[in-house]
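Notes from the 1:1 (GR / supervisor)

We went over the backlog. Supervisor wanted to see one worked example end to end before approving the batch request, so GR pasted a single chain during the call. The sequence is below; no edits were made to it. Supervisor asked that the structure be written out right there so they could see what the output format looks like.
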Amino acid sequence: MTTAFEDLLELLSDETQPFPIEALAELSDMDAERTTKLSELWKHLPIERRRTLIHEVGTQADLKIELTFEQVNRLALSDPDSEVRAIAIHNLWECENPDLVPHFLETLKNDQTSQVRAAAAKALGLFVWLGEIDQLSEDLLHQIEDSLIMATKDDDEDNVRRRSLESLGFSSHKEVPLLIDQAYHSGDEAFIQSALYAMGRSASDQWRSYVMVEMNNPSPAIRKEAAKAAGELELREAAESLIELLDDVNFQVRDSAIWSLGQLGGEEAADALLLLLDNTDDETLAENLEEALDHLAFVNNTRDFLLIDFDDTEE
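Structure output shown during the call:
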């Protein structure tokens, strides 16, 4: 009698059969034996089957948090198809294992497809952040920073340079502020977006004025990034501007403003979010507002707790 896993492999190999989405859980958290069996099948699967498989395991992992397809995605990192490689890198966005770093660095430097290099640049952002909080060796952090800095300067494709800059947003490397500033003043809307994205990640007060100004930019894409950065940087003075953006005609700008108001806290932000919640019948918008209000309540309670005079309470 065949196992459910073996039945799945047979279905995957038969293009005349519908793609077995409902059975993909068999690929979750695979042991070495199952990984080897899938690897043997993988090289014989047609390209469209491999693309569908790597896309669907990413979707299923997002829908069902108990499923982990790390071994499938690792297997796909060396696929001959660039789309499969790029999706596999994206699917590993939560994996903090530093043994992925050498592969991502090699990919950033040498992959022939800009889509894959950009995916690697983006994935390295997690490891920059881990290095900044001392969860990665200093030597490995420096290797990552050096590679990303080189990519921002030397890569032929804008999307790779932008993703590299965004990942460097977490970094305290001395060269990063200048790179962000250059991108911001480049006059290129896409690079301005990436600069604001990096500013939000930086936790640096030096970008306050830039972010405040760009919340009024005519470009919705720039307003969106500025609004998000205001929340990440905890700019309390941005609350009024963010409340105004709740009426923005662009829903992505509005959603960024909602998220950031939830990060900032305060009665004014709470009142504005509650008013919008009371006047909407959009389920997705309501969910975003409720999440922001939950976080806002946490921020307010934390702030109140920190204001307690513990010396007085002990008397």
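Supervisor's comment: The chain is about 70% helix and 0% strand.
Batch request approved.
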